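Box S1 | Example of a co-folding query
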Amino acid sequence: MFNRKNRTEIQHFVVTAKQMQAIETRLFDAGMPVAALMEKVAGRITQRILSKIESIPVTSIGVIVGPGHNGGDALVVARELHFLGYSLVVYCPFSKQKELTQSHLKYITSLGILINLNIESLQNCDVIIDGMFGFGLERPITDELAEAVNQINAWKKRVLSIDLPSGIHTDTGEVLGTAINATDTFCLGLWKLAFLQDSALDYLGNVELIDFDIPLADIQAILGKNPEFRRITKENAIADLPLPRPLTSHKYKNGNLLIVAGSHRYTGAAILAGLGARASGVGMLSIAVPKSIKPLLSSQLPEALIVGCPETEDGAILDFPSHFSLDQFDAIACGPGLTQSASTIVQMILDGNQPLILDADGLNILAQLDPISTLSQRQAATVITPHPGEFKRLFPDLVEELKNRILVTQKAAQQSQSIVLLKGARVCIGTENTVWMNPESTPALARGGSGDVLTGLLGGLLAAVVLNQTPIDAIVKTAVWWHAQAGIKAAKDKTELGVDAFTLTQYLNLLQLGLNSNNHN
Ligand SMILES: NC(=O)C1=CN([C@@H]2O[C@H](COP(=O)(O)OP(=O)(O)OC[C@H]3O[C@@H](n4cnc5c(N)ncnc54)[C@H](OP(=O)(O)O)[C@@H]3O)[C@@H](O)[C@H]2O)[C@@H](O)CC1
Ligand SMILES: Nc1ncnc2c1ncn2[C@@H]1O[C@H](COP(=O)(O)OP(=O)(O)O)[C@@H](O)[C@H]1O
Ligand SMILES: [K+]
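Box S1 (continued) | Returned holo structure for potassium ion
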């Protein structure tokens, strides 16, 4: 007896509509009949739909059928559910269909299932299957079709979307006119960009990839060996953790990090970044703050070396103490809570040769300095971690393109020759060749201070791996995954309202996330 192969490797590929079409074309050119592929895919969708509805009382199932192959998929699913004894209501408001879809429509009619032109026909269904549009949708849904979609959403029924919620653009995740609010979406074959775009999130519901055995060679023929768009998974995130430690390790082999943060106004930001760094396991931690808040930092982080700095009149860092050198550090994390008065030291750090994470006010100060040329001229690696507001200040020429977060991150990374971590519900990390995207997170993180924790965690990891030459983009994705997983676990235990930034730092313990020192789960 053979078990189906669990193809975890395909979980990290993410494709555009164009790439998906090119991969699909390769299958057809190789001899796979289109109709056979549709049967196979729809058979798998049917199995997954059954697993979702078996435990709930279902009297009748509504099916929305579009004009293309998304509609064809829906009709095959409808046929199978009919033979399983479910009562089906088919709604197809299109006068023309693609040939294969038309053929399935004809057959389903021959089975005695009525094809309705009127959306009200679905009103009494318990579950609706959405096969209106998939990755072929390119123009907005308008007029009666838009009204039908809005009506379905207003009913607030359970809606299972095939491939994408109809109305969502495959690449940008934008709503084209209007879109189905799905409770579940079955993404077919390979993850599409829309599944990692913030703009689509509220429409997707629970998401699931339905693998239909696209040969790896066909995927690689289109995407290459190092795909441009990649999803962060548990496997690829933990692979780059600095674990296990060599038995003969010592503190200077585990990274020497300097955090530059805090002001009278934002003392907590420095503490939160420090606690984030603590969780990373960094070998040595120094935190530069305005000297009058040094006692506060020392009491919260006894293991850290707190560097008290001369202050501006408004309580920001004015300068580093005399004889203080940045050269001793493996990495610097700079920005949380600095205020814009700390521009002198930010400039000094940018001029230095240490790998750098720049966040918050560090970015706002950078925005005044011609960011693209400043970043491009740095000798060492720079990771910038803007939220969309900071991003707009840094890259005013890219503001219009922010509606496609994935592509805009890629462009910003290429222009600035830096690693760009664009914050949001689905964090995107732009690097020279790849955009990494984090598919799992929680809105519990949407509150002040959670970004400071990420900066510290990332700083600690960066300092540790600079020494063992792990690529920097690899560790950035690990930090993003770790931060989000801690948020998810904390939200499970304390609800989405219970995850203040300090609580988040308490959940960064890897054991709580199901890992151990051998880096095995
Ligand atoms: N990839 C794979 O390997 C597999 C893919 N499969 C399935 O195929 C799906 C893609 O199928 P697809 O290419 O036929 O496109 P689809 O999304 O059904 O719709 C396009 C149709 O809609 C029309 N249309 C567009 N916009 C419109 C509007 N605003 N208002 C009105 N009409 C509009 C457009 O017409 P036209 O632009 O020509 O007027 C065209 O006819 C994919 O999502 C998956 O479910 C599986 O079966 C097998 C494996
Ligand atoms: N809706 C959301 N879902 C998941 N994560 C979110 C959401 N909103 C914000 N985040 C995350 O929370 C953090 C907020 O960081 P930031 O905006 O810098 O806040 P702060 O500077 O106050 O710490 C980022 O890591 C961001 O990706
Ligand atoms: K759909």
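The two ends are 28 Å apart (CA to CA). The CA atoms of residues 271 and 297 lie 6 Å apart.
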